[in-house]
Write a structure and sequence with these properties.
The protein is an alpha/beta fold. It has 22 helices and 20 strands. α15 links the parallel β15 and β16. The chain is globular.
């Protein structure tokens, strides 16, 4: 059925409604005013951000949480370049997302008009599909394709440019149907071969990661692991794919891995990797698996056929979405697991030892014990609490010591994007206001997108933010002391009073400098967030020398100096 004449902006918003969009994030711009006008009469919630990077991060977090494309609107030029960080995150994290960019009018195109950029060139290697909609009567076609591309196979971002004159052009055009994500599935022969390889194994290991996971897929995977008594590791920043309290969960696999778990992966004779790309961070710098031919027999399951064999020549490569393969694995007849009967219990013991209080805090010399901070958080927060973090050494406290409660309890960027933590936390609370959301952010991390506290206040998003303030870009300082000991350059930070800043935005703020101060501060923050629906910041001020759970900057520096002196 052809609709009466509508503007391009109205056609676009109607299409978003058909495809199930309930929330969009963005910063307004004059280049897409007709879309903003159409949103005025729509039931789609438009969340106004303070900077396009924050908007794109929020859209990416929405995609992670819901499995549906996160929608982001930005203006041309500077707006698009600011938003590019979210597109890069969505691409490397395999997150469905659609970025709409207002574009100069077609009458000015290719003149380097005000804020004009060729987005096909700009985003070409950063998105699954980049294009420009030049005709209003083709908007339904383009939007339907954008949703299809963003969600099918390996999920990822799509970028659509919207010329300003196209959006105000009227057209009589029928709407498209709602999109239907498409995923490949294993053949029965592939499942039979996987089962035969598992039956022949002596030291098997399962690794989980990647996008497109559903609650059902996670439950099916757990049944498969239980039936075959398999140890399961979750890859870098996908720790919530299996409840960390599950008997078969043995830890996270990637950068900063438990050395005993790393040895277990290296010494496995069969690795079944379901979903992850097996990139640099997941494989600890390609050290857990040799490239191109691993020492272990490898079954690699991934939604994108082009990913299979691109780095590792697996013994069995299966193009499949997680839901499709896990349903078949759960239905598969179990094998005899006698050969590795005690493996899970041994790995669990290793994990417990790895998550115990680090020696650096055991003598009580440090006024603020960050390990105790995490323990107290797990004590007070519900099991389904969503934890968000960005990039930095502070994230170790969340990755190593926090025990995630299962699917959609972790939002973190695998591409290592600083600035992700705050927008992701705010988005999570807006999307699911009944759940507790806690953000881990370093001082440098927070200062990149902390202005989204204003968004949290505006939309009554009572997220709890823990700001780890050690007065430096800690990760870079650690590498600096290792490679250039004693030559500090470019890594010291002068910070504001983060608690006072939170109060200035209209939220709750406290400073914690001693271990015993944290529990009551967290209790007050949780109560404030729940009662007033406003964000709360707890600034954790601690000695920057305590750079990791395993080492201080001083020991790193002395080790490096000794190594240089011995040359």
């Amino acid at each position: 059925m052809t609709h009466p004449s509508r503007t391009g902006g109205q056609i676009l918003v109607d299409a978003l409604h058909i495809h199930g969009v309930d929330t969009a994030f963005g910063v307004p711009g004059e280049s897409y005013l007709d879309v903003l006008d159409a949103l005025h009469d729509s039931d789609i919630r438009f969340v106004i951000n303070r900077q396009e990077g924050g908007a794109a991060f929020m859209a990416e977090a929405y995609g992670k949480m819901t499995g549906k494309p996160g929608i982001c609107f930005v203006t041309r030029g500077p707006g698009a370049t600011n938003a590019s960080i979210g597109v890069h995150t969505a691409y490397q994290d395999s997150t469905p997302m659609i970025l709409f960019i207002g574009q100069v009018g077609s009458d000015f195109i290719d003149r380097e008009a005000f804020q004009e950029i060729d987005y096909r060139r700009m985003f070409g290697q950063m998105a699954k599909w980049v294009t420009q909609i030049d005709r209003a009567d083709r908007i339904p076609e383009y939007i339907a394709r954008a949703f299809q591309v963003a969600t099918s196979g390996r999920p990822g971002p799509v970028v659509l440019a919207l010329p300003e004159d196209m959006l105000i052009t009227k057209a009589e055009v029928p709407d498209a149907r709602r999109y239907q994500p498409v995923q490949a599935a294993p053949s029965q022969d592939q499942i039979a071969r996987l089962r035969a390889m598992l039956a022949e194994a002596q030291r098997p290991m399962v690794l989980l990661g990647g996008g497109s996971w559903t609650d059902e897929a996670c439950a099916d995977l757990a049944r498969f692991a239980e039936a075959n008594r398999l140890p399961v590791g979750c890859t870098f920043r996908f720790q919530d794919l299996l409840d960390n309290a599950h008997p078969n969960y043995v830890g996270d696999v990637g950068i900063g891995i438990n050395p005993k778990l790393a040895t277990r992966v290296k010494e496995a004779d069969l690795v079944i990797a379901i979903g992850p790309r097996l990139g640099e961070m997941t494989t600890s710098g390609y050290s857990l698996l040799a490239s191109p031919v691993p020492r272990q027999r490898l079954v690699h399951v991934h939604a994108d056929p082009e990913e299979l064999g691109s780095v590792y020549q697996a013994d069995l490569m299966i193009a499949s979405g997680p839901a499709q393969v896990c349903a078949m694995l759960a239905a598969m007849a179990p094998v005899d697991a006698a050969a590795w009967a005690g493996t899970v219990e041994e790995a669990k013991a290793d994990l417990a030892a790895w998550q115990a209080q680090p020696p650096i805090f055991r003598d009580g010399a440090a006024p603020l014990d960050l390990w105790q901070v995490v323990q107290e958080l797990m004590k007070q927060a519900p099991r389904d609490t969503i934890i968000t973090n960005g990039a930095g050494n502070y994230a170790t406290w969340a990755h190593r010591f926090y025990r995630y409660g299962g699917k959609r309890t972790q939002l973190a960027p695998t591409n290592g994007a600083m600035g992700y933590a705050v927008p992701a936390g705010v988005a999570a609370k807006i999307i699911d206001p009944q759940r507790t959301v806690v953000t881990f952010a370093g001082d440098g991390e927070f200062m990149m997108t902390g202005q989204e506290l204003a968004t949290a206040v505006q939309y009554k998003a009572g997220v709890i933010m823990l700001v780890f303030n050690n007065g430096m870009f800690g990760t870079i300082r650690m590498h600096q002391e290792r490679d250039y000991p004693g030559r500090v350059s470019g890594t010291n930070l002068h910070n504001p009073d983060f608690a006072a800043l939170a109060r200035a935005y209209g939220g709750h703020g406290e400073v914690v400098e001693k271990t015993e101060e944290f529990a009551p501060a967290l209790q007050r923050a949780l109560a404030h967030a729940n009662e007033h629906k406003l964000p709360a910041v707890i600034e954790l001020r601690y000695d920057g020398n305590l750079i990791t759970p395993n080492a201080t900057l001083e020991t790193i520096r002395k080790t490096a100096e000794a190594a240089k002196a011995g040359r």
